[in-house]
Specification:
Length: 354
């Protein structure tokens, strides 16, 4: 039986991954503390892991076909787990935002290992659903507006990862896509407004992730606006502080200086991904809307990472770095079974009358 290593096994996402994969594989879970909820799981083995200890990390990854990283924060770990996987000859799956690497580091991993990045909800499902619209639901895609976010409980690690997602290595803030290139979009992000399929007014901020840019570069989409949304302005206020700090110091130093509070948590959690596109289908002008509504994103993220690990075990892809949306089944969300009865995914067409 194949063995899969999970770094950060006891977190919300790590638990989902381990429970999913233990059905068919031996899972070696690693972190500093024993994951109580997983210890009685069949095929699960816990091993103490200090990611900062290189020899410990190498020993943990040894004898594993795939290594999954769902630990953070990203700006601390960077490519450390990926390098360890490459060292022992294992395939690497990253369930986080994306690897915060410079071009030289990216080329090294691409040349010497098999790496799957963005194996979660965002990025991951975000890219898959945009690809579904462009390549399957519409014959020609003209204009697209996307909204993602909501009100989820935050940890210091998740806040750090959200703020780091705006770093230029993996995305473009205050940007949109038009005429085959990235352009600047300046809006008042501290003003609430209603967006499609969301019942409450939200703050929104333009942002193009590298995942989305990669998809757009090989598409004929005329224009796309992508907005991160939030019911509470706390993250956006932190973002403004962070970006101001990083003008005067390094990104890592700015993150360490930032005073992150966990007191402003939402009473009710929800998260939405809405893709609203206009284009042509069977010769008709139509509006296509994809609507994903969930209480939290951790279960979907963990399930995506587990699915990518399964794909990695069974495939013989050459060395390289692959986005999750490149290998996930295009109808993944149509087949996905939600455990929360209030969560749902739907696709709608409306003909645009001239």
């Amino acid at each position: 039986m194949e063995q899969i290593a999970v770094v950060g096994c006891g977190g919300m996402i790590g638990e989902v991954i381990c429970k999913n994969l233990c059905k068919d594989f031996i899972v070696k879970g690693g972190q500093r503390r024993e994951p109580t909820a997983l210890m009685n799981l069949n095929n699960f083995n816990y091993q103490f892991l200090d990611v900062s200890d290189w020899e410990n990390l190498i020993a943990f990854c040894t004898d594993c076909t795939v290594v999954i990283n769902c630990a953070g924060p990203e700006f601390v770990i960077k490519d450390r787990v990926a390098q360890a996987a490459m060292k022992v000859g294992a395939k690497y799956v990253d369930a986080s935002n994306a690897l915060l690497l410079n071009q030289e580091q990216k080329l090294e991993l691409k040349a010497n290992g098999v790496n799957y990045i963005g194996a979660g909800f965002c990025p991951g499902i975000t890219g898959l659903l945009l690809k579904r619209v462009i390549n399957h639901l519409l014959d020609e895609t003209k204009h697209v507006n996307c909204y993602i976010g909501g009100a989820e409980h935050y940890t210091k690690t998740s806040i750090s990862d959200i703020l780091m997602s705006g770093h230029s290595v993996i995305g473009k803030t205050d940007s949109y896509w038009s005429d085959h290139c990235v352009k600047t979009e300046n809006i008042n992000m501290m003003q609430k407004e209603f967006v499609p399929e969301v019942d409450v007014p939200v703050y929104k901020k333009p942002y193009l992730s590298q995942e989305i840019i990669d998809i757009l570069e090989v598409s004929s989409v005329q224009e796309l606006h992508w907005y991160n949304i939030a019911a509470n302005d706390y993250i956006f206020r932190l973002a403004m502080q962070f970006y101001q700090m990083q003008l005067e110091s390094s990104v890592e130093e700015a993150m360490k200086k930032l005073d992150i509070s966990l007191e402003e948590q939402p009473k009710e959690e929800w998260i939405a991904l809405v893709i609203d596109a206009t284009g042509v289908k069977d010769g008709r002008n139509v509006r296509c809307r994809l609507n994903l509504q969930m209480e939290t994103s951790s279960e979907l993220t963990g399930t995506v990472a587990a699915e990518i690990a399964r794909q990695a075990v069974s495939s013989n892809r050459p060395n390289g770095t692959y986005w999750a949306y490149e290998v996930l089944p295009i109808d993944f969300m149509n087949q996905y079974v939600f455990s929360n009865k209030h969560d749902f995914y739907e696709e709608k067409y409306v003909e645009i009358k001239k």
